[in-house]
Amino acid sequence: MSRKPCCVGEALKKGAWTTEEDKKLISYIHEHGEGGWRDIPQKAGLKRCGKSCRLRWTNYLKPEVKRGEFSSEEEQIIIMLHASRGNKWSVIARHLPRRTDNEIKNYWNTHLKKRLIEQGIDPVTHKPLASNTNPTVPENLHSLDASSSDKQYSRSSSMPSMSRPPSSGLNTVSETTSKDGTPVHEDGSLTPKKRLKKSCSTSRLLNKVAAKATSMKEVLSASMEGSLSANTSFSNGFFEQVRNEEDNSNASLINTIVEFDPFLQTTFYPEHEMNTTSDLGIDQDCFSHFLENFGRDDHNEEHNMNHNYGHDLLMSDVSQEVSSTSVDDQDNPIEGWSNYLLDHADFIYDTDSDSLGNHFI
DNA sequence: AACAGTCTCAACCGCCTCGAG
DNA sequence: TCTCGAGGCGGTTGAGACTGT
């Protein structure tokens, strides 16, 4: 009622933010905190819409925002969650610490979607494209391992950020490391070994995760529709089998995946109400639970080198203490998940093993 | 060297939800 | 209970950098 409209009747600036504008915004928010976006432009001396300030801060300047190349672990999570939730970028972002929905959305549209298509997987349904007769066979990953995927990484790792303001020596992200902190040549490209390892690992995981995500989506759909029955591929005693094998690595993986997605808990643990604080001790931020279970990597110096623009900007010119949520305080929490999945996900394609593996295909 | 095409991603747009008044 | 602004969200755009010819 009494509130004044936002951004009305003012000659507001649009387009890319300048370094000076960033400094003003960072300085103001650091001093007064977030919130009250409507008033921030005026108080901070910016000719910007409050909404624009909020977006600039949350997507780019916020100290805890992680910027740079997505790891294969993060890619797995994005694909899996996209399969079950669709384009719910904010939901996906909640499972990827320090990543913004906008960044995930961009990464999906420019990288993951294309790669899934190349593999014959529909990025919308996460099911094999009609033209691909055998899309889930891992061998098909050879077609993108060193070509498309490698090309993407090579290109993106060497490409400067487009709309990033003139660095003025402030941004150290891509000077000695790739976007995800991987060591790079002086020209910004990944070393051949790193590139090969990364692309192969990513492609292998993409194949596995895409197939797994498809199954998960089917189960989720069936669950949501209340139609999960003996006809569902996960059924036929599968839940019981998994749950009775607590010390089995397969069961452990399933549990981890289920824990990862609270919605799937009702599928695997139908006697439980869908509850954000289930008996598993999992909530919407269940990824942190995973961290507790499987430990944090303490060899993430590379990731710790992943400073960010806002942080550097603030530290460079504004003599104020940086927020306590410093990048250096947080190592990459995804690594453990990746290693665990890599170590245990092979059963998904292991058709020679027991029935557990086949349920996922 | 110049140009066109491609790619990336920050920023914008418009709609929706929530909650203050 | 209703109104409407703030904030959140997903889709889209376009500037700028890279690549190929």
Automatic annotation (TrEMBL):
Tell me what organism the protein belongs to.
Raphanus sativus
Q: Which domain of life is it from?
A: Eukaryota
Region span, Disordered: 123-199
The Myb-like domain sits at 9-61, 62-112
Please give the Gene Ontology molecular function terms for this protein. Answer: transcription cis-regulatory region binding
This chain's protein is named Transcription factor MYB28
* Name of one Pfam family that matches: Myb_DNA-binding
From start to end residue, where is composition biased (Low complexity)? 147-168
What cellular component GO annotations does this protein have? nucleus
Question: Which CDD domains does this one have?
Answer: SANT
**Keywords associated with the record:** DNA-binding, Nucleus, Repeat, Transcription, Transcription regulation
Stretches with biased composition (Polar residues):
169-180
Domain (HTH myb-type) ranges: 9-65, 66-116
